[in-house]
Design brief:
The protein has 342 residues and is α/β, with parallel strands linked by helices. Helices cover 48% and strands 19% of the residues. It is built from 13 helices and 13 strands. It starts with a strand and ends with a strand. The C terminus is likely disordered.
Length: 342
Amino acid sequence: MNMSILIFGKNNFIATLPDQIRYATAFSVEVIDNLNQAVSHMHIQITPPDIILVQASLDGSIELCSWLKDQTKLSSIYCILFEDRPQQLIDRNKGWHRELEMTAAALNQGADAYIWHLLDEKIDHSLAELTANHELILAQLTVGLRKAQKYRDLIRTNDMLSTIALADSLTELNNRRALEWDLPRQIKKARSQKTSMSLIILDVDHFKKVNDTHGHLVGDRILQLLCNRLRHNLRCQDTAFRYGGEEFVILLANTNDEEALVVARRLNRVVSEEPFSISNKLTINVTISLGTAYLQAKDDDQGISLLHRADQCLLQAKTTGRNRVIASNYLSHVPHLKVVSS
């Protein structure tokens, strides 16, 4: 992905920038001269700019630097403030201490770098001055690009580590830690969008017997084959997690209680209808028990009560014969347990 630069400035400012910026091919450049448009641009962009060049004399320039400083999600943007305000250029000549004070003020206001820019058309700048100014601009640009590349590398590394930390190495599903992160997020989304949400907890029936009879390697292979079968029979909106051992949780976004029951029935059927082939000489019949629950207004934001209801249904499924689905909505409407068979 190419690096990107946002220029907050007028045409007279852009015309004084080095050709390496104005006619860049190594990175993309966008120009905006309105504060509200600049803020909106950085908010709506999926990938914000890596560097922003700010013309100090443009209305809203200092406000933009200060705003950017307070945006945690945009903190990686390298902000270079180009000082071209007439009064500041005059004050600069009052002595080096004044220049240092103004530089410190600019940095405190949110800029990452502060450049005195030769923009006054009334002053005939020497070629040496212009060359030195352009070299400084390009040097600061290099610093910004270097920081942006390191930030991107860090994000990629963090994404990779997060993927590893949130994945179950045996089944390649998300793990329990991922569920603890994603479940509250899905609940918040469902409530904010006023949509339904359900979940399924399922458990492999008599799994200990499989391990005791055939060994843990065969047990592990059963779990892998089971997850492949589940994965191929879930909808794009469903997210599966290995909750622990032979127990799994599936989050069902935009799914009410009746739809969750349909999904659970299908999973129960596709697991039990065909034996699992471990080798040419060994096939094992596997069944699963499932409990479903749907999000209610009384449920906590972390999803603990939602999980608990589904877990109670799973427990009932296990104690009343296994290889079946029990839905929590039936339990809340009838005095006796209602079992929904596959």
